[in-house]
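Listing S7. Sequence submitted for prediction.
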Amino acid sequence: MHRLLNNRTKIRNEFQFNKARGFLLAGNLTQSELQEMRRQMGKRGTLVPNRRIKLDLPSKVEVLQTKPLNVASSGPSAAATCTGKKCCGRTVSLSYNSNLDWLDRTRNGKFCSPADDTTKMDVFVLDTGVDSTHPELAGRVVTVEDCSVNGPAPWTANVDVVGHGTHVSGTIGSTGYGVTPNVNIHMVKVLNDQGSGSDANLVCGFNKVEAWLKSNPTKKAVVSLSLGYSGISTVINSVTTSLATTYASRLVIVVASGNSNVKGCSVTLASVAAVIAVGSTGATRSESSFSNYGTCVDILAPGENILSTYPSNQYALMSGTSMATPLVSGVLAQYWLQNPNMTGLAIRTALSSTSNPLFAPIVINRKSGTPNKLIQYTCPFNVCV
């Protein structure tokens, strides 16, 4: 079989091997090659389709040519203290970025961002690439790699034609639109310039994460995945479960529940028990009409008309569980920095508890099975009150 594959024209990311997890992903096989592979495999394995991934935003992206009015102060806030710590590093005056305004539950048009820390949390964003030259992301994007079909790494990953990856990255860690400045963003481009990909691209992205974890045995990481499938990918569910459980002490995987208004348990990646699946709410604290729902959704976050960074020094409003997910990723990254002795499994367990400072039971309208948990950013782990 290896001879068959090695004789193929070498197309980037056409094949993905993973000996440890016992599978091979192969793309663009002819009918005769497929038949020969089945013959050589015999009863030793199973052939399954290489499923496709595509972005599914529930509404049109509104691109803003000029800079909106979110303004971050340059110095520490003089506001109150919590448990004897400094309140925050900077106060962000919000124009209409409701996702940040909900985090501290004050709804006062301001967000108290954490103080800059010399220690950063590594966050892997598997998406459409990133415009790392955006001034709001200056110094935050530390690596870019390409697992899409657009060409050799690392160059194309630093170009985000779709804009989705730049928007997601901005929600996690941009200066005026992000949850925390204390992140090192690692972009792995798994979706091409049309916003689509496959199992093979995503496995390649997971392999990048695992390689980094092996090379940095004392570090922790959050993986943020604002993508998904219309059904179940058994390959990706298996790979995701294996990665999350193998590195349960040092890894947290946060995924979008999806925008099809179906049960999260019926789709990849929300159906994976070892991840944190995020649903979306609107400005009235009701679960979004498009959001996937049910018992496989772990937490909700604002995901409608979210303002964040966009390529070419622009900004955009986007909606979807894709926008809710990085908000949770950013909160968990900062939470983990302030609770360094916790494991990734302990972080996930904290979200499944009945009471925790990470969430508030204030969702007004929920669909069947969705938990009453809205992400928040308050004392004691956040000293901005």
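Caption to Listing S7: primary sequence and predicted structure tokens for the chain studied. Residues 1-5, 8-17, 72-87, 379-385 have pLDDT under 50 and may be disordered. The longest helix spans residues 321-338.
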